[in-house]
Structures are given as C-alpha cells and as structure tokens.
C-alpha cells in the first residue's frame, strides 16, 4: 500500500512573495487533512490468499459428528474432516471390533480408502453404512465346543494323520458327499471359473468356496450365510490327503492365532489344493 499526499501539501508553486513563516503555517494546518491512499491489487490478492489458506487449514482440522450404522445399530462417531477413509476404518475397528481390512463403508456409494471425510461429501449428521464381519462372526460359521478344543490340543501334539484324528473322523466317516466335485490325485490344476462346491465343514454342513481375485477376497459360503474374507485375514493354509481317498484333501484355513481358529473343509479335490494355497497366500494363477 502506498500513500501519496495531496497536491496542496507542498508550498511548491506558491507566490514568491509568501514568507517562509506563512508557508510553514500553511503546511502545519494541512497535517491534519487526510491523505490519499492507493492500495494495490496485488496487496489485496495476497491478503485474500492468506485468509483463505488460514480458513482451509482451520476447516481441515474441524471435527464433525456423524452416525455409523452397523448391524441395525447406530453409533455416534466424531472425526476430523481431513481424516482418510483408511484411517477412519481403523478408528471404527477400535470402536466396533470389525477389522479394517474387512470393512466396507457406504455413503452415496462405496467409499475408497484414499478419500478423506471432506472429499467424500460427508457432513455433520451424515449416516454411514458399515458392512463387515468380526473374526468371531467368521468363526461362528464353524463354532467350536470346549470338547473340540480339547481334541484339537491333543491332535496338535500328536503325529497322527488328520484323517485319523477323532475330531475329523466325525465328518469323514459319513463318506464322500454325493455332490462332491471329482477329485484327481497327482495332478495340479488352476482354480476353475466356477465356485468349488460339494465340500463339508466340521459340522457336516455344505461349504462353497468362491475366489474373487479382483477384490482379493475368498467368499466362504454355507447354507446359512456367506462370509467375505480378505485374503490377508487368512494367516495360513494347511492340507493333507485323506487316507484311502487321496484324490481328496482335508484343508484348514488359519483365521486366528490358535488351533480353535482353524476353519476345516473336507473333501477338497486334490488337483485344486495348490491353486487354493497360491490364491490365498498371494501367488495368483490365471488359467
């Protein structure tokens, strides 16, 4: 900003007959008069930019309240506008116990991890739908009794083949399911284009495996429900041929840290076992 005095501020141009005293007096009288000020456009723009930057920084730090709907229940949640959806999922994991890798958040469509609360259009009072399963929900599909846990602990310290252990004999003694897919020993094949079906869980219930490689998920389907498991939530995969029926395997998905966290599947066609392990552990094969 530049201030320029008025033309009358100077004695220059006055009559030469004016005395120095009169000139000094005139100048003194005009000190109280307002000066003409010029404010350059550049100064205005810079001031506006500074104000906007301060406003944006304040907005990004603003905390808003919203509602998250999960299993037909509403939860009041507060978070900052600049929080990413990925970090927000971690916040919900601590609140609801649903692993962030098993969450899907819906608000006017599926929210992406790299979005922020602000960029996704979420505002104060918004309702966000959470779809996901806790580890306990997944294990409930193949619930384990105290007796089963005892038998598993005994089996883990035994070198006895899986197919001869009591906990597995309960299912195997029923024989090969009528709708089991054909098994072929000593052969390795890629995953079929259709789900693997005709298998059983530890309760003798039907199990279907659907591999969604494009979304890195394994869909574990039973008559009652379908659980969509991120591949990363499966710690390991173990398998063993079934004695006298080596064209089929017993397969265990390690979903947690203990023996009781294994989800057992019976009568898995032998030719697909390696492809299943590769898909779950990250070595995808496309055939």
TrEMBL record:
Residues 1-31 are annotated as: Disordered. SUPFAM superfamilies: Ubiquitin-like. Residues 62-131 form the Ubiquitin-like domain. GO terms for molecular function: cadherin binding; RNA binding. Residues 22-31 have a biased composition (Basic and acidic residues). PROSITE patterns: UBIQUITIN_2 (PS50053). InterPro entries: UBFD1, UBFD1_C, Ubiquitin-like_dom, Ubiquitin-like_domsf. This is Ubiquitin-like domain-containing protein. It comes from Phaedon cochleariae (Mustard beetle).
């Amino acid at each position: 900003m530049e201030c320029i005095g008025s033309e009358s501020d100077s004695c220059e141009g006055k009559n030469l007959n004016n005395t120095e005293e009169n000139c000094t007096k005139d100048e003194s009288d005009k000190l109280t008069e307002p000066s003409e000020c010029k404010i350059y456009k550049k100064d205005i723009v810079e001031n506006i930019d500074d104000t906007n930057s301060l406003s944006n920084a304040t907005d990004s730090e603003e905390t808003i309240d919203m509602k998250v709907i999960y299993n037909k229940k509403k939860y009041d949640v507060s978070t900052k506008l600049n929080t990413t959806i990925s970090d927000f999922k971690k916040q919900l994991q601590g609140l609801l116990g649903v692993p962030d890798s098993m969450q899907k958040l819906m608000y006017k469509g599926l929210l992406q991890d790299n979005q922020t609360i602000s960029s996704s259009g979420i505002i104060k009072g918004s309702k966000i739908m959470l779809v996901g399963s806790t580890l306990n929900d997944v294990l409930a599909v193949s619930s384990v009794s105290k007796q089963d846990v005892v038998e598993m602990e005994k089996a883990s310290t035994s070198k006895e083949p899986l197919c001869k252990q009591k906990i597995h004999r309960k299912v195997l003694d029923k024989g090969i399911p009528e709708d089991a897919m054909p098994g072929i020993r000593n052969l390795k094949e890629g995953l079929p284009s259709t789900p693997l079906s005709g298998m059983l869980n530890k309760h003798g219930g039907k199990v279907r495996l659907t591999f969604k490689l494009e979304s890195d998920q394994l869909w574990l389907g039973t008559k009652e429900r379908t659980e969509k498991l991120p591949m990363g939530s499966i710690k390991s995969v173990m398998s063993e041929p079934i004695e006298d029926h080596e064209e089929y395997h017993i397969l265990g998905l390690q979903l947690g840290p203990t023996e009781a966290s294994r989800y057992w599947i019976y009568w898995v066609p032998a030719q697909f076992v390696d492809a299943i392990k590769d898909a779950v552990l990250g070595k995808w094969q496309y055939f």
